[in-house]
Amino acid sequence: MSASASRTGLPLAVERAATLWAMAGGALLLLVVAINVASVIGGLFGKPFAGDFELTEVGTAVAVFAFLPFVQITDANVSADIFTQRAPVRLVAAFGLLAALVAMAFALLLGWRMYLGMLDQKSYDYTTAIVQFPHWIAFLPILASIALLALCAAVTAAERLARIAAPGH
To answer: Span 79-97, mean pLDDT?
Structure first.
């Protein structure tokens, strides 16, 4: 049985939030594609979409961060299973615990630094060149993604710890 199938309560709520957040990131990515298609078609008629490159840059960054919590909670990170396919369940769980703790530490460190970066972007009124989109605004959903990533890492760490402690493994 997968971890997802056995989740209830807060872990299930975190998983559902990560899934919805990733779907929102996917919708944003579709919007970015639509803007680019509109710009290319408009360019054929001498009227490209002004600022398409800037919006692609910002939209893609926000979307990529939106996918990170889903990847963590579904255990879809890249791994070299060939080295652990015959290892005991507890050892694999210990590696999973270590990976979840590293993900959580990374999320907390990244969240702290991105928050400070957002404050800098806001204090300097840094905007994109053409559409004058304030950069700091893009940090808000990115910071939400990072916070959700930390929650997902905490859930997966707790699940790996329970697997290590489970009798009979």
So the answer is: 86
